[in-house]
Every structure is written in C-alpha cells, then in structure tokens.
Design goal:
The chain is mostly beta strands and 139 residues long. The chain is built from no helices and 12 strands. The protein binds (2~{S})-4-acetamido-2-azanyl-butanoic acid. The site of (2~{S})-4-acetamido-2-azanyl-butanoic acid has 10 residues, from strand 2, strand 3, strand 5 and strand 10.
Length: 139
C-alpha cells in the first residue's frame, strides 16, 4: 500500500509547472499499476491545446469553471465541478479556464514523468522497461 499527500509532491520531480498549468503526479508508471493519476490545475484565463495520440485520459473536474472544445468535431462543453471528460478517441481538444480548473486525471498507459509535449501537444509513448532506461516510440 502507498499513502501520499499532494503536499508531499511540492517541488519534487512529480510536480510539473508550465505557463498554463501545474500538475502533480500522485501515481506514475514506476508504481507499476497500469495507470497514472495526476492532480492538475489549469490556470484562470489560459487556453491549452492537447492531443494525447498514445494515451487514453479521463479528466474529472473537482473545482472551477471553463470550457472544453472537441477540435475534431467543433463541439463545446462546459466544465465545472463534477464534469468528467473521457478522451477515448485520442481527440484533439482545447481547454479554456475561466477560473482555475482543478482536475483529477487518469492516464492509460501510465505517464512516466519523462514525457514532454511535442510541437503537436502530444506526449510520446514511453514505457518503464526494467532492461533499459526508457523505450520511446514516437507519436
Ligand atoms: C487536464 C489535462 O489534460 N491534464 C493532463 C495532465 C498534465 N498535462 C500532466 O500531468 O502532464
């Protein structure tokens, strides 16, 4: 069993901040449980484009207000406390945060923590491999 608190992650390599968001990764691939689990805050007033070509992601809003656009279809959705979106089709999407949006995010396959969004907003597929440092498959 692993017990942790969000504040334990502050300033560690599990705490990632960009101009638009901060994400603390409570569960990563190294825990070897088949998913990663993140507490992400998307900052008020920002617009972020994402595309997870290699991952399925569930995003559950637990605070704040914003909008989500499915850039593949043009559909727009309101995001507020209690909204879940499941990216089960690797959709290109845009998140606009009206206020700080607090999101609980689950990724399958799990994020390792070494991914960096490429120019398309894609995370490469990196798997934990006990025989090498990392295995990277481009998107
Ligand atoms: C809302 C959203 O897509 N969050 C993703 C998590 C964040 N980009 C991370 O931890 O890398």
């Amino acid at each position: 069993m692993i017990v942790t608190h969000l504040s334990d992650l502050d300033g560690t390599e599990r705490d990632i901040e960009t101009t638009n968001w901060r994400s603390r990764r409570l569960v990563l691939a190294r825990e070897n449980v088949g998913f990663s689990f993140h507490d992400t805050v998307i900052y008020a007033g920002t617009e972020s484009k994402f595309w997870y070509a290699n991952h399925i992601e569930a995003v559950y809003c637990v605070g704040g207000e914003g909008t989500l656009v499915n850039d593949d279809t043009g559909e727009t959705f309101e995001i507020k406390d209690g909204t879940l979106y499941l990216l089960n089709g690797h959709e290109h999407h845009t998140v606009r945060a009206k206020t700080d949006l607090r999101m609980a995010c689950v990724f399958n396959p799990p994020v390792t923590g070494r991914e960096v969004h490429d120019e398309h907003g894609v995370y490469p597929l990196i798997t934990e491999d006990e025989n090498s440092d990392s295995e990277e498959v481009s998107a």
